[in-house]
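FW: tagging you since you asked about this chain on Friday. Here's the raw sequence from the shared folder, copied in full. Didn't touch anything.
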Amino acid sequence: MIVFPSPVPAWNYNATTRWCHRIGVVALLLYMFTWLVSLEATRAFESLLVPLYLVALLSQPGRGRAFGDPLWILLAIWLALQLVTLPAAIQMFPDYARDEVRSMRQLSKVFMILPIAWFMAGNIRIALWTLTALILGMVLGAVFTGQDMETLVRFVQEGKRPTLGFKNWQHAGVCAGGILIAQACFARRFLQESADYQVTLKWLARLGFVAVAGLSLFAWAITMTRASWLGVIVVALLALAGLLVMIMRGHIKSPRLLKQILLSGLVFAVIAVALGALYGDQIATRVFKEHDVILEVLRGDLRNVPFSSIGFRIHAWHYGLQLVAEQPWFGWGPKSHIPLLLQSTNPVGDTTLGAIADTYNLRHFHNSMMSLLIANGVLGLAVWIALTITVGLSTWKSWRRGDMPNDMAIFVALFFVFWFIVNLFESYMNYRTGVYWIGAVGGMAYTFGMRRRLARYIQPPPDRFYR
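HL: got it, structure written out here
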């Protein structure tokens, strides 16, 4: 059941804001749920969310202050940068004019944090239901649009990597890693809240939770995405270190909670051993496959770095830095990375980087920060860094004030560590994977601060009674 927030004026000032919010929450859940299952459906709900948000803001007094939100200011700066970058990019690469505009829209969707945070309304349940809708949509989408079980078994036996209905296996592996982090952070809350369910429903819910965890772990392993493996392992080590510090400082004193932590550790140890037994050879092969390439990189001579998964990234990043040096401030344009990559004459063995990109259909720089620098320059990257800092500070303040619960704050922090790591090796922010994850988690991180900010200057009308 969706529990709407208490009648804070910003969401209940009049019938317009009230109905915009209620319709918007339903649209938000469907927007998150359908992104992998149906692109047309999720775009329809996206087209509904933004107008509802704008109408709700415009229907209230103090709307000028609402549009003075730091993210609105950053959005205005971002769009102003596009007015400089886009015309030049279209003039340089006229064949990519339409793609330049589409890519600009895609990158700008990081600011969907604004309407998503508003519809969450600083309400813990709505925020959690939004994340749940995203996770269930991904899992069910993978089950019904991905490879069947017979094909998956064959892929595992042959060492192939399934896409599971996603754009490719890297996106599937990263989404699986994100789901595992979310389930680990919210498992205790889920078990506590499901304890109040009717017996049959309680065990069905818990069975579903375990099934999602099992499927996600399976996907995380068989997609063999090293960035996702690294991200989850780093997050797990950080979480373990944090737990040990809290136990040593006496912040965790409950014997029951200590027992739950110990049991969880044993479960993870058993899972790790099982994965090692089942896929140990494949994992080791995947991890150490390119150690020769890494050694060549460490020697500092890129001429000897061959074409491979890591080798291509090294050559692409080197070329990317050259491009940034040529157009440092405003970049080359949102979609210009494709023609720039294809026309590269940087040597890779006995061929060129452009020829390899063309032959193997490699169309981006495999690093979100590098892609953003090439697209919009140092100024564009500065806007994104400012956005990250703004959302991060809002999260910190919300947690310190007690508005955001501990498990949610931990999840937001760990997820963004994971997200930073995986985006060092892929350009997920250029694709829907990044849009929806950042929308859900960024909205969750920002909504509590937004609620407190709006409550300060949107007061209830005098003729209405608020409990």
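FW: The chain has 20 helices and two strands.
HL: agreed, and The radius of gyration is 23 Å.
FW: great, closing this out.
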